[in-house]
Amino acid sequence: MKTLLCLLVAATVGAVLEWVGVPQGLLLGSILATAIIVAKSGFAPTLRFGLGYVQVALGIATGLMFQAWDSNTAVALLPSLGLLLLCLTAQIVVAGFWLCKVSGWNLKDSLLAVYPGALAAVFDLLESERASSKVIVVHLVRLLFITVLVSLCVTGKTAISAGDSSPWLVSTLLILLSLIALCLALGRLLLRFGVPAPFMLTAIVLTGVYVRSGYLPGFHMPQWSIDVASVLLGVLIGAKFSDISLKELLSHGRSGVMSVGLMLLVAAGFAAVAWQILGSDTLTLWLAYMPGAIETISIVAFSGGLNVVFILSHHLVRMVVLHFAPALLIQARRWRESADRG
């Protein structure tokens, strides 16, 4: 009941901010309302399937855009993807160096704090049972900072509505249900290996396969599904404040802001270079080179009318490099240890 009430309050505050013209008001209002509720009451809403819905909804909406995907588009992405890998390396080096040398953190905490993605795989790789509070603060600051900054930078509004879709026939509904079932099944499999945003990954890839195979012609995700995802994501982000005390937030918040700011500046620098070389839009490139927050960037890119496929293609590569590779190293290490014992 408390969780439902929190959702209603978050949706109401978000709708009000959206109505008065605040950029991404639905998302930011939900974060603000939930953070206040958590701080005042000590209650943290639990949305067991909330993140799964966000990932599947946004993943399907992104995959539907692969209707226009062709080999020329893929080839055009390659130079930018190469710059992305250099950008990720520079982000880790610059922000990690600042935390290590200026803030006086040890090397392990510095690298964990600036790791541009989810922590699950790298924690296992480094045999760390839990991160220190300051590492968690940096990742919370990164998530919140990117969400607010990107939301304020992208002020456009696109029309993803039910009116743009073909009629919802029984056959369309059955195909959609089969797609969702496959996304959930394969996503749970990836989840066992510590892969972040696994349901979004499977939803994007499988929807692209469905679309290229001629299924779901003319279908678009209705706007209400994206709006629900915005509210749920806002509540999930706001609820994270229950894990961090105000003292910890104030104590390590400055380091978090500085390190995240450096990572975003590096991303902006590489976006400027890519703009000179490739001629693409600088804001789109900057969002593509962001160090994380794929669900937030997806929502903002959709509502801003940006090239979502281009942006999320970069984030998918980032996830593969930063999470599949550590997961493979973990499995290889375990197999080697098992062989040594045998």
From TrEMBL:
User: Per its UniProt entry, which superkingdom is the organism in?
Assistant: Bacteria
Residue stretches spanning the membrane: 25-43, 50-69, 81-100, 140-160, 166-186, 193-212, 224-244, 256-277, 289-312
Does the keyword field hold Transmembrane? yes
Instruction: Please list which residues make up the signal peptide.
Output: none
User: Does the entry feature the keyword Zinc, yes or no?
Assistant: no
Q: What is this protein called?
A: AbrB family transcriptional regulator
Q: Which Pfam families match?
A: AbrB
Q: What are the UniProt keywords, alphabetically?
A: Membrane, Transmembrane, Transmembrane helix
